[in-house]
Design goal:
9% strand; 53% helix; alpha+beta; Glutaredoxin
C-alpha cells in the first residue's frame, strides 16, 4: 500500500499541512489506497532518504517522491489508467499558475490568521523550531504577525475574489469536475479549516460552497478530518 508522511501536531490526528492535503486529495481522486504516517517538523531524519526535510513524502513500493506537485505528476504517469489530475498541457499550466498564486498571494494573507494556531498545536520541540524559522522568514514575532484579525480576514476575502468570479461560471476551478488545480487551492484553505480556532471562510460565498463540496468528496475525506475545534 502507498504510504504518505503527513504533518501532524501534538495530537497525531490533527493533520493540517496544505501540501499534504493536496496530495491526499490527489490520491483519493485516483482512487488509490494509502496509509498516512504522522510526521513532525523536527523528525527530518525519518525522511532523510529524500535528501530534504519537508512533507508530503510518498512511498510507493521502493519509490520515494516528495513535493505535492511532483507527486501529482508521478501519480498521473504511474497510474495513467485512473482519473487524471492534470489532463493535457493546459491543465498542467493552470496548476502551475494556481500553485504560484496560492503559495504567494493567498498564503501571505492566510498566514496572518493561521500561524499562531499552528504554533499552539505543536509539540514543545516543534514549537521552538517553528517559531525560530517563521520569525526569521517574516522578520517579526508570531504575535506581531497575527495582531490584526479583521484586517487579515479582509485581505483573505480580497485575495479570493478571482476564485469567487471563476466559480460564478464554473462549478469547479478545473471545469465540470475537480482536478489538481482545485486540490491546490483546497489544500491551502484546508490548512485554515483544520488548524484555526475560528476558520476564515464566509459561508455565503461561492468559494465556501465549492470548499464544502470538496470536503464531502471521496467518502468525506476532508469532512471527516479532525480539527482543533473538535478538541474543545
Amino acid at each position: 500500500m502507498i504510504k504518505l508522511y503527513d504533518l501532524a501536531g501534538i495530537d497525531p490526528n490533527i493533520r493540517f499541512s496544505l501540501y499534504c492535503w493536496r496530495t491526499k486529495m490527489s490520491l483519493a481522486h485516483k482512487d488509490l489506497k494509502f496509509e498516512t504516517i504522522p510526521w513532525r517538523f523536527t523528525e527530518k531524519e525519518r525522511i532523510s532518504q529524500t535528501g530534504q526535510g519537508k512533507v508530503p513524502v510518498l512511498l510507493d513500493g521502493d519509490s520515494f517522491v516528495y513535493d505535492s506537485f511532483d507527486i501529482a505528476v508521478y501519480l498521473d504517469k504511474t497510474y495513467a489508467d485512473r482519473p487524471p489530475l492534470m489532463l493535457g498541457h493546459g491543465a498542467k499550466a493552470a496548476a502551475v499558475f494556481m500553485r504560484a498564486w496560492c503559495d504567494t498571494q493567498l498564503l501571505a494573507s492566510l498566514c496572518e490568521l493561521v500561524i499562531k494556531d499552528v504554533h499552539s498545536s505543536l509539540t514543545e520541540q516543534d514549537q521552538a523550531y517553528f517559531r525560530e524559522t517563521r520569525e526569521q522568514r517574516f522578520g517579526k514575532s508570531l504575535e506581531e504577525l497575527c495582531n490584526n484579525r479583521p484586517g487579515a480576514l479582509k485581505r483573505v476575502k480580497q485575495t479570493l475574489m478571482p476564485v469567487e468570479q471563476t466559480l460564478s461560471v464554473n462549478e469547479y476551478i478545473g471545469g465540470q469536475s475537480p482536478n489538481f488545480t482545485d486540490f491546490i487551492l483546497f489544500g491551502s484553505l484546508m490548512w485554515a479549516h483544520v488548524i484555526c480556532t475560528d476558520p476564515p471562510l464566509d459561508s455565503e460565498t461561492k468559494v465556501s460552497v465549492w470548499f464544502n463540496s470538496l470536503l464531502d468528496m471521496y467518502g468525506g475525506l476532508g469532512r471527516q478530518a479532525p480539527t482543533v475545534r473538535d478538541q474543545r
